[in-house]
Amino acid sequence: MTRPRDAVVLVTGGSAGIGRATVNRFAEEGRRVVTCARGGERLDEAIAGLPGVTGVVADVADAADRARLLDRVLEEHGRLDAVVLNAGLGWAGLLEDMPGEVVEGIVALNLTGVVELTRLALPHLLAAARENGRADVVAVSSVAAWSQVPPLTVYSATKAGVDGFVTGLRREVTARGVRVHTVNPFFVRTEWLARGHGHAPQSDADAHGRLSRGIPPERVADQIAGCLTATRSRTVAVPRWAGLVRLGEVPPVNRTLDRLLSRRVEGIRRLAARAVRNRVG
């Protein structure tokens, strides 16, 4: 059985936020980590001094980068025991206000990138499961997957897609030793909103003032780490009470939300625009 310090874990989106907190947590545990981000300088800043951590500049939305990322893991370590699918983008606003290229980019990263990187990694995860009795896929989803509300309609749709993908994948691989998890956070104190609107901070100092309100990313990282030692596949809300969001899709609550929210779209548009200005200004 592979011990934690022997396990090789790929974490996407490791330069900031949840991914960075997760990489730090795994490094403390002695795991061997390969992580990626689109910005090399920020990634270098994030992993500086962390033992057993390798950084790769790669965009999970790009097919060639996905293949190169996995090749780097195998070249460096010869195996893969777990994948944490964390990289993602959001956009706050109404669908009619979204540029088409933004929609395509969010779907490409949040959903297609998750499915395709998992597909590439799966043969190696199955091999690890045969050798050691387990391997893990952890998808960082969102409570938005459980109740889709504006101004996060497209983001919510991609996360609902991730949750559906995870459910199907569990039914393919559970009996073969691969555990498949989702961690579904509520609002998290990250650069998510600034990044989604094209203002990714270039350094930790630049990130000051751009963080969205929410729980510390370390709380989410704790749950991700817990998935790698869980005895079965998990779906975890962070914090736990956030699982109540599921009630938003239970009749008649869902129909009530349809009516109420659709009558308030102009107010939602203004609130979203204000939130974006506060993070990118």
Question: What does this protein look like?
Answer:
The chain is of the alpha/beta class and 281 residues long. It has one domain (4-280): Rossmann fold, CATH 3.40.50.720. Helices cover 48% and strands 14% of the residues. It contains ten helices and seven strands. The protein has helices spanning 17-29, 40-47, 63-77, 100-132, 153-173, 192-196, 204-207, 217-227, 253-262, 265-280, and strands at 8-12, 32-37, 53-57, 82-85, 135-140, 178-185, 235-238. The chain has a seven-stranded parallel β-sheet with strand order 3-2-1-4-5-6-7, with helices on both faces. Helix 1 (17-29) packs across helix 8 (217-227) and helix 3 (63-77) packs parallel to helix 4. The longest helix is centred in the middle third of the chain and has 33 residues, at 100-132. It starts with 7 loop residues before the first strand and ends with a helix. The model has no long low-confidence stretch (mean pLDDT 95).
SSE layout and pairings?
Blueprint: E1 8-12, H1 17-29, E2 32-37, H2 40-47, E3 53-57, H3 63-77, E4 82-85, H4 100-132, E5 135-140, H5 153-173, E6 178-185, H6 192-196, H7 204-207, H8 217-227, E7 235-238, H9 253-262, H10 265-280
Parallel strand pairs: 1-2, 1-4, 2-3, 4-5, 5-6, 6-7
